[in-house]
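Before relying on records like the one below, remember that each one covers exactly one chain. Contacts with other chains, cofactors or solvent are not represented anywhere in the record.
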Amino acid sequence: MDEESYMQALLEKATELRVKVLAITDHNHVGSVDKFRALAREHNIQVLPGFELASSEGAHVLCLYALDVPVATLERYLGEFGIRDTDPSSKLSPKGFHEILAIVRQQGGISIAAHVTQENGLLVCLQGQARVQAWRDENLLAVQIPGAVDDLQPDKGDIVRNKDANYRREPARAANLALAVVNAKDVATPDDLAEPGASCWIKMSEVSVDGLRQAFLDPESRIRLNSDPPPEDHAEFVAMAWQGGFLDGAAIHFNENLNVLIGGRGTGKSTVVESLRYVLGLQPLGDEAQRAHEGIVMQVLRSGTKISLLVQREDQPAEQFYLIERTIPNPPEVRDSTGAMLPLIPRDVIPQVEIYGQHEISELTKSREKLTRLIERFAQHDSSLRQRKADLKLALERSRTRILATRKELHQIEERLASLPALEETLKLYQARGLEERLKEQSLLVREERILQVTPERLAVFRDLLVQLRSELPIDTAFVSPKVLDELPGKTVLADIEKILGQLDRELTQLATQWDEALQKADAGLQSVRAKWEERKKIVQAGYEKILRELQKSKVDGAEFIRLRRQIEELRPLKERQAALKRALQEFENERRQFVSEWEDLKATEFRELQRAEKKVNRHLRDRVQVTVTFAGNREPLIQHLKDNPGGRLSETVEKLKEVEAFSLREFADACRAGRDVLVKRYGLPGSQAERLALVPIEAILLLEELDLPATTRIDLNVAAEGQSPVWQSLEALSTGQKATAVLLLLLLESKAPLVVDQPEDDLDNRFITEGVVPKMREEKRRRQFIFATHNANIPVLGDAELIIGLSASGEGGQGRAEIADKHLGSIDARPVRELVEEVLEGGREAFEMRRLKYGF
């Protein structure tokens, strides 16, 4: 190929491979730079111009400069290295390796040691102390290798990994690298670009020498070789905007990794955090945090303000965006990517998001129950468990209703039957006087009348069943309609379901009609029987009245006898009902025992998930934090229940129950049923209070069985100095800063949902932020999104925030508003952002320099 054809082919291949930046580094030559830059602009590819030098020792160095540096300047730079010939050549520069690195830095460029493990690379062509000194040169920020670090020869690999004591660099640029490593092999043909060792990923706010320098200073955060594992997919906030309120007109496009909000007090950092919480419909965990949240929403964001949040789910097979919108004070709305409103809440589309306001982490440490929520994040939840619990809870409520209704009816029947023995005794007196025989016909008539009254009652249950059947018709077959099944591969098989249900619907409809006709026929028949019986009654009644007149002459009240007989006949069928209710009650109670057993099993299953999460957390935070979860550790629901039933003074009982380590609601409910002595013996309760518990109504005991006592979590922190044996102390015995330390370590553990924290440094010391928070944050930000509001420079700078968001405020009082200037959006490699960080977080360059001088480094 000629030069231009080669350039075009190279740029087309780069476009195909999504390579966005190329560096042109001919040996001792810059004559092709302008033509290459011009052609690259047509492909939207940026070019870092420069050249390759060979030091006087023979070590090759890549020298890169600003995007727009003129070729004449590049030629002058080459002259400073003693290269006077403008044609390409491989001659050595008279400058040594160290001198070349220093001159490139003075020129405003950046240098990379080329193919260091191969011929003409510094680890091959240099030997002894010359090689050691070259490797340790403070101006050497990056080296080029042909592939993965793990593929290097052992001796070279140890040097690159900073494991060779003779070559050790302090400080190292990464935890497992002495300095930045890049893949950027020489490209002889366009196809060479496709090789994994020809390119690598570099994070920069904008392509520049300064961006490269920041990447080389922090390669762990900013450089990824093609051989390295790619970042993990995770849920993320994509963008956010406000209409109205303090942030009116502001908008942020978040980075998927670490975002840091900075600015002076009153510039809106906390307002952004609480806006995220509000638009997602999340409630603070602490009371103080709740009050602060409500204050910001109503007084700073204000009614009528609309907050819009674009989110992306982690578990989607392809990019799927959702827009969540909320106008104060209305509930949030969720829309899909087409703008259609969905019947979802924000938590459905981006679950497990965690947002903590100022001092909320510290407040969280005061509740062991709330700490359990942190552990739940690490539990592998059975997706069906929550639904099974809800179903079983409903079954328990229904069983309680049935048992109480049955017991109530039994009690009413027993009250009515209590008068039966006395009535039967009175009947015997009447019988002794011969009234039974004389009024036998009328007495039997009373029994017949009762039969006619009971018969319709027996039909009532079938009428109710018919009503229930008709309420379920027609059968809903929408879930198997042709439209629903259209995209399913098994639609021809599943289509038969609609036919089967349609046939069942027709047969049940026909059955309902026949059922109704049968009941009408029975009603007509009973009406006929009643009419015939009424004729017979008239005849019997005439004879009865004649007998009554005769009895009156003897001063005997025959009518009272008949009333007595009627009362007895009405009560006697209740005995059958009583027996049936007792059988039903036994069945309901047996069924409930099964439900209660399943309820306890489900709660235990849920707790075992927490125990597995506990082990996982302790494994990750070994020697730093230990967590212990306790089954049914939160007794507050039980205590509140006892205050309601039986109520009164129960302070000793409450304390005794709190002390029970392995507490079982089921056993306690059984003890209440068993009575005072069992309560005293098993739980050591005072006699009078045990007596009151034993006398609580059955409904209170049934409700007791249905309680769900949440698990609680104890957190212990190792307060021993580094290298000493662990000394564990519980949160209650720790300082505010130590408490926040332990909890924040939990929050930073693996999760794929965004974590938002407002000023974590408020309750932490700088050393922990530097040694604890920042390293963990750097490790996890590849797997999840962080948004921090802070006044501490260590978080955005040492954490190497991908996006720093600088906020400022203008105006006064209720008319003030926050502003986010475009120039104050970016990373530390953007000069305006870096200057803002210096000013806001470091107190300005002069203050920083003065501190550095006072520290002596």
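The chain has a mean pLDDT of 89.
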